[in-house]
Amino acid sequence: MSNGSLYTHIQNNIATIQFFHPASNSFPSELLARLTKAFNELSENDQAHVIILKSEGDRAFCAGASFDELVAIDNFKDGKQFFLGFANVINTMRKCKKPIIGRVQGRVVGGGVGLVSACDYVYATDKAAIKLSELTIGIGPFVIAPVVKHKMGNTALRELTLNATKWHNAYWAKEKGLFADVFDSTKQLDESVDDLAYKLASYSPDAVQKMKSILWGGTDNWDKLLEERAEISGKLVLSEFTKKALEKFKK
Known about the structure:
Blueprint: E1 5-11, E2 14-20, H1 29-43, E3 50-55, E4 60-62, H2 67-72, H3 76-95, E5 100-104, E6 107-109, H4 111-118, E7 121-125, E8 130-131, H5 145-152, H6 154-162, H7 170-175, E9 181-183, H8 186-202, H9 205-215, H10 222-236, H11 240-250
Parallel strand pairs: 2-3, 3-5, 4-6, 5-7, 6-8, 7-9
Antiparallel strand pairs: 1-2
Helix pairs in contact: 1-3, 3-4, 3-10, 4-5, 5-6
């Protein structure tokens, strides 16, 4: 349980991936690897026509990468590998043959914003505020920046990254294009997610796959780009500024 949990199931051609971690649904490297594997497997599974990504609980959708692992990084190789975790998931999601619906019931921080941005369609509750706080500890959201920009635009990316202590509410995120709609209850959220999933599952898989490929056009260089961004973060996390900031935050 210290590494969290991840479950997948398929019913009526609708696949669901549900993840959990006791630290506000954050992601240690092992859980990120399992999520990447799950998307790869479902992409090739003919029984799955659409995928729902959700997390457990009602407070946080995802708190980003594991803080404990971040603090423990003491060399460039491990630093790069750590940040490649979200890079691999994002690249797997954009290349996945099946459309991915994000069900966001609570707050989203850091790498979690990258996961949500990599979904093809997202519904959220009004509790789903978002924040990119990486600059406050001497690193930046370099790995997820391309997918956040792809989803929300450069202006929204600027506001999120430079005002790193501010929570932006769910309606702001909807206005910027991250969420398709925002609901005031999880009941409405789940009804809308299920309805969209049911419709997408009934469409021609070939047509949906080709449409998704078009929607992700211009991202073919991301395998290399996100690796380069992971290298930037892998170096910065070793800086004296970041070490002091992390120690202060830990205390």
